[in-house]
Amino acid sequence: MSWESVPMLSRLKGTGLTGAGRDRWSERSALISTFMLALLLVWLLARTFWMLVPRDEGLAGVSAQAVVTAGDRPAISIAKWHLFGNAPQRLPAQSNAPATTLNLSLRGTLADADPHQGIAVIADAQGVERAWRAGEQISVGVSLDEVYADRVVLLHDGVQEVLNLSRDEQTGRVAPLPMNQRGGAPLRNTAPAPGPGAITNFAPINVPQGSINWQQAMDKVGGSPAE
Description:
Elements: H1 5-15, H2 19-52, H3 57-72, E1 105-110, E2 119-123, E3 129-133, E4 137-139, E5 142-147, E6 151-156, E7 159-164, H4 214-221
């Protein structure tokens, strides 16, 4: 043995790497390497398995189509969602609707361009008058359906009936006597003088025969319902 090998052996003995220690270290290194190689082999086998398994192209195509369709579908307005059901469509008034047999009298109408927005003054059997708006229920099973200038359409138990405007105001009028045929002293105006701000140019309202045109009447007076 040379002189240089003596210190090397001394150093190996000092570190504890004797023959038995080197064997134990080699066994541990081999076990660790084997474990890592086993993990790598398992990963490669799993990857190869998923690559070889055929994919369901039908499901993949359906999923892709569903995504594209959902993205390209236009937004639907919430106004088109019938959240509270579909409103019943109104049918036009039947021209051959029969006259009503109800004990009601039509005294006046306020017709609108839309017959379902008008107002009518109707009197009952006792002569009590009341203004009704189209769509309101007059009595049980009877409602005001449509309003026209000379008639109204009632909905009686689901059947349309016509109530024509009363013609009582069209009865004959008594013509005034001429001045030369009147007896007695001439009449003179005993009414008090109009106060300040009074309307002096008031003329009688010419109510049309049949339908009462309230708007025309108020325009001629020069006022409004609020005044």
